[in-house]
Amino acid sequence: MRHTAGFVLACLAALTALPALSREEIPAEMRDVPFSGNIATCAESGTLNAVMGRFNAAERRFWNGEVEILSIEAVREVAFRPHGQDLIPRRYCTGVAVLSNATRTRVNFAVVERMGFASLADGVQFCLVGYDRNHTAMGDCRRFDR
Fold first, then answer.
1. Is 49 helix (H, G, I), strand (E, B) or coil?
2. 10-61: per-residue pLDDT in tens?
3. Cα distance between residue 111 and residue 79, in whole Å
4. Cα distance between residue 45 and residue 25, in whole Å
5. Residue 119 carries which DSSP code?
6. 8-state DSSP, 10
7. CB-CB neighbours of 28 under 10 Å
């Protein structure tokens, strides 16, 4: 009985402490060096060109591949800032990549504020289903599914 009462009191103390364990969310726009939250859209030519150019260059340079992305179609936004207002703003996107070998595959990508070269521009991270040779984006590029 004495052990049960102690267990119940410990559980009640833990439950009352839960709000104290949650973190405060301060919007990224209110930091000392604030983010703006204004990042490129999924269908902007600069975003799509970054995905195509980086994939094509990596495919030639590191994999001796002959496949290139010719275009990206059916582009749509999947999520905007899905992890909260206090983290670096990102936009998750998906589309269909038309490849030079006459196939089509899904491409998932994220546009991340100020994560480009020297934090001067937005950064773009991407994954082509079937071409994640380093296995960095989990099976079928799920890292970008939001």
1. helix
2. 555 555 555 545 666 666 666 556 666 778 899 999 999 999 999 999 999 9
3. 11
4. 33
5. G
6. H
7. 19
35 three-state secondary structure: coil
Task: Quickly count: other Cβ atoms within 10 Å of residue 144's Cβ.
Answer: 22
DSSP annotation of 46: H
DSSP 34-84: --------TT-HHHHHHHHHHHHHHHHHHH-----EEEEEEEEEEEESTT-
Per DSSP, 16 falls in state H
Record the pTM.
Answer: 0.71
Q: Check if the beta carbon of residue 124 is closer than 8 Å to that of residue 110.
A: yes
- pLDDT (tens digit per residue) in 100-124: 999 999 999 999 875 655 555 567 9
Calpha distance 68→97 (Å, rounded): 9
Provide the token pair at 22.
Answer: 């949650």
8 A C-beta contact, residue 85 and residue 35 = no
Judged on CB neighbours under 10 Å (0-12, 13-18, 19+), 92 is: buried
Task: Say if strands 104-112 and 90-99 run parallel, antiparallel, or are unpaired.
Answer: antiparallel
